[in-house]
Amino acid sequence: MSLTGIFLILFLIVHMSGNLQLLADDGGRSFNIYAAFMSENPFIRVISIGLYASILLHAIQGIALALANRKAKGGKYAHGKVAGATWASKNMALLGILIFAFLCLHMADFWVKMRFTDTLTMVTYAGHDEAVQDIYSRVNVAFQELWLVAVYLIGVTALCIHLVHGFQSAFQTLGLTHKKYTPLINALGWIYSIAICAGFAIMPLYHYFPPSYPPTTNSASM
Amino acid sequence: MIVVGTGLAGAAAAASLGELGYNVKCFTFHDSPRRAHSIAAQGGINAAKNYQNDGDSIHRLFYDTVKGGDYRAREANVHRLAECSTDIIDQCVAQGVPFAREYGGLLENRSFGGVQVSRTFYARGQTGQQLLLGAYQALSRQIALGTVQMYNRHEMMDVVLVDGKARGIIARNLLTGELERHSAHCVIMATGGYGNVFYLSTNAMGCNVSAAWRAVKQGALMANPCFTQIHPTCIPVSGDYQSKLTLMSESLRNDGRIWVPKSKEDAAAIRSGKKKAIELKEEERDYFLERRYPAFGNLVPRDVASRAAKVACDEGFGVNATGLAVYLDFEAAIQRYGKQEANNQGNHTPDAATLRKPGEAKVAELYGNLFEMYEKITGDNPYKTPMMIYPAIHYTMGGLWVDYNLETNIPGLFALGECNFSDHGANRLGASALMQGLADGYFVIPYTVGIFLSNEIRTPKFNPDGPEFKATEKAVDDRLKALMNVKGNESVENFHRRLGRIMWDYCGMARNAEGLNKALGLIRELREEFHKNVFVPGSDRDFNPELEKAYRVADFMEMGELMVMDALNRNESCGGHFREEYTADNEAQRNDEEYAYVAAWEWTDTNTPPTLHKEPLKFENVELKTRSYK
Amino acid sequence: MSAMKLTLHIWRQRHANDTGTFETHVVDANEHMSFLEMLDVLNQTLIEQKKEPVAFEHDCREGICGACSMVINGRPHGPLGGTTACQLHMRHFQNGDHIWVEPFRAKAFPVIRDLVVDRGSFDRIIQAGGFVSVNTGAAVDGNTIPIEKDLASQSMDAAACIGCGACVAACPNGSAMLFTAAKASHLGLLPQGEVENARRVQAMVHQHDKEGFGRCSNTYACEAECPKEISVSNIARLNRWYLKSSLTSNV
What is the distance between the alpha carbons of residues B407 and B414, in angstroms, rounded to a whole number? Predict the structure, then answer.
């Protein structure tokens, strides 16, 4: 769990920093080129298979763990609750399921459309040889839907809570602890979780509440 | 062979015998061997290692132990104990006992219990726990290897004799209540002491005399039963509901000053809550140990300190609601340490407020965990207000009579640890009980049991279905059924409490012939009432903690009587046995002419007076002297 | 000494296969009693009424034997941190309080009667490897191997475990990792125990799993409820050793 977790943590950094290009005021140029690069580069393709496998493995292991642990518990206490355990730590499986459900929607929204259904328009940019899919516009359109924005915010919040526990938990599980460095890791975990999720949360919000200057999109081509 | 009990002595013995290749069955009434009451020992374990270069030696440890025991222990046993002491430390270190270390990585020692050398090894305030875990782990290893078969939650109900030799036990499975017959070539008992005969003691709730007492009923001799140790620094009784007493480590007396108010009016005002300790001025306080024993002051041995506190309370100077407590005051230590610290920082005229903080910090560093425990139990903050303490029963030096090989007078029946009488005489020194338990278990019994077994090589296995086993089992069953069938109206706990009260009042810290004679009558009456009016709920063939208590208390009722008889017989004051008639200058007076012997009692039944056997004590290496602390 | 009236909701269960239920009793207590003495008072009343007293495990009553095993208002050993039930005093409750008392709950700790549970699984974890394999008499002098003071102290921190099982009772997963890790750390940190660390760690963890304890998911409830305040850093250490021995040793 910890190894796949750390891999996914690393992935999120890449995913978020790449997607921050959604905020660029260039009509989606950089984002679309980036997206094309990510979907065509053979190295990235291999990594991405690893990513899907990691997600599945993380999810399957997590659910198996939760089920086995529930069996080992043998009953709840009638009154009161134990000290020390955060809500997140006790509800990692629930959060995980939420995130997974969100992920399915997220993939259906963008990844499927991009890879399989071929419904995206192609655009060309000066200085870039090939035409690329205009995923940027798809994002922009999608995030005009209030319900979708809300779902994204819920998903990202779940992810944040999941990460707050998961980040330091991964280090604990791998035994990577030290009196001096563990407090740093814990702090880093908080900063990371909040930063990643704030970053992701900005994207739908940015598109739902566009800044005062209208993005100079080539919306005509949609 | 069978080992009963899994404290330091029992677990060490079972493990060591298993290693030697014996087939061992080991029994404990606890749910796990690790819960035996050895675990509660705080202070440490003595060993004559002389790591501190302060002139310690085997002879010196031997001498201190014989003298500390007020010359009522057998020299040979004590000398062997001192010899084994060094091996114990090595063995425990090898097992992974985390003893305290110096910065250089070597073992640390402290002085303890008033001796003049630093020979006590310790693991924080949990030495007993760590040593027991060491023995428990060694035992667990043998259980895994199959040399020891472990029976948790099984209580020894009786020992089975075949042709006069111990060949097995009847055990009760405490979960089902079923009786079981177990046979062996010999039986080793390490079943602890009988301090709970006093109801309130620092012993665990489960500690009992029953296994030892059953051996006595089968013919084993009980030696020096009146030798019981009272520990001066325990948290006082706070009410009738109280179930046990908690020890505060002896080390507190290094810095605490013991006092009571000088006037009875002040004492009465404090008892009724009208006055507080800190309101009393210096000249209104009586530091009675410092007054009576100027040379040793608050550091006099346990028995002396205990008796002085009792005298103060008996005269009406006691300080808590029950009138049975004295103060243990750390204010002077806080001031002294505070002043040192202020001086260190160049402030040579500190005011009271500035030196308080560093003073309290130093005291916390030394005794913080004990202060915390005290506050947890009493709700008082001992940094701000003096602790209240009172003596309590702590250890029993008496026990089954054993020879040098730790064999009782029943061939094949051995007794180890607190269960026997052999090493501490009339008074035990601090940090010696752990030493004795482990010496007996690791280094004595593995050798001496062979002396008995060497003559048994051709003896075939004993059939646990043999007539002796069945007869003993029937007797046990009858005894349990009888208790169940009384169907009276009073709980076992009540009877136990009443017995404890009698024992404490007449056979406690100070005894006299009149009181002891009175106690004899009271115990007999109480015993009769017990067998007529006790109520035991549930069934004897089921998990039934009340029944367990009942048969243990039934045995205490008889053991208590024997203790009183022994105390009555011993017309002298020595160690923990203080007879008010035998004093000189208000201090205990031994009678070496007439009483330098072990009193080993043979008890048949409650209708026959017990027979006294005397083992004279010869002192060839130690000169008998009177202890003086003035 | 102020008297208090308390309403106890106390778990009654005849045996492991019985479903069990809460029974309500009103008890007169006072603030100086320990929690167990308050239960003594209840039992005395039950006995006077010729009823069966509530079975609960207890022995030393000074917080070191690890026998007491009850959950008070949802917390193993009750509301006070770093305290066993026997050292918990009634002054931490209020007159008129309702108190729920239950046994430690975990699949690997089947209930024997009322508040008494079977913790034999702990013994079997120790038997699997929680020892140093030395026979009596084989030891070298205690000062032959110097041990760094800090190391000895860390080992002692772990060795302070009283084996009560509160960690399991607190764990939402019913895991005994804190107990296992404390023992493994106690021995493995010392040079005497380090020798057989790989074998010990593997054996103890496998026995832990075999007993039906859950897996650790780092909720740290164990640390918060441990009456001896054993740190979860021991679990991290065990994880590290387990990983290392899995990858690098022959066992």
Answer: 4
Do the chains A and C touch each other, judged by at least 3 C-beta pairs below 8 angstroms?
A: yes
CATH for B467-595, options being 1.10.8.1000, 1.20.58.100, 3.10.180.10, 3.40.50.720: 1.20.58.100
Full set of structural domains in chain A with CATH: 2-71+89-211 (1.20.1300.10)
Low-confidence residues of chain A: pLDDT under 70? 212-222
Establish whether B285 is a catalytic residue. Answer: no
What CATH number does domain B232-393 carry, 3.90.700.10, 3.90.1150.10, 2.60.40.10, 3.50.50.60? 3.90.700.10
C71 to chain A: closest CA residue: A77
Chain A positions with Cβ closer than 8 Å to C: 65, 68-86, 89-90, 92, 165, 168-169, 171-177, 179, 182
Q: What is the DSSP string of B57-79?
A: -HHHHHHHHHHHTTT-S-HHHHH
Q: Is residue B113 over pLDDT 90?
A: no
* CA-based nearest distance C236→chain A, Å: 4
Whether A84 and C9 lie within 8 Å, measured CB to CB: no
Min distance B140 CA to chain C CA atoms (Å): 5
* Letter string b/e over residues B234-272, b meaning 16 or more CB atoms within 10 A of that residue's CB: bbbbbeebbbbbbbbbbbbbebbbbbbbbeeebbbbbbe
Residues of chain C with C-beta less than 8 angstroms from the C-beta of A6:
none
Note whether C223 contacts A84, CB cutoff 8 Å: yes
Tens of pLDDT, residues A161-186: 999 999 999 999 999 999 999 999 99
Q: Quote ipTM for the complex.
A: 0.97
Q: In the prediction, which pLDDT does C246 show?
A: 95
Report the b/e string of B177-192 with b at 16+ CB within 10 A.
bebbbbbbbbbbbbbb
Q: Which of B94, B129, B546 sits opposite C139 (nearest CB)?
A: B94
Give the DSSP per-residue string, A133-157: E-HHHHHHHHTT-HHHHHHHHHHHH
- The ranges of chain B annotated as CATH 3.90.700.10 are 232-393
Q: Which residues contact C4 (CB under 8 A, 6 or more apart)?
A: C28, C29, C30, C31, C90, C93, C94, C95, C96, C97
Residue B137's nearest CA partner among B184, B84, B91 is: B91
Mean pLDDT of B582-611: 94
Residue pLDDT, tens place only, B340-392: 888 888 888 888 888 888 899 888 887 888 898 899 889 899 999 999 999 99
Query: pLDDT tens across B446-458, in order?
Result: 999 999 999 999 9
Instruction: Tell me the chain C residues in contact with residue A75 when contact means C-beta distances shorter than 8 Å.
Output: 105
pLDDT at A212: 66
Nearest to B427 by CA among B12, B64, B174, B95: B64
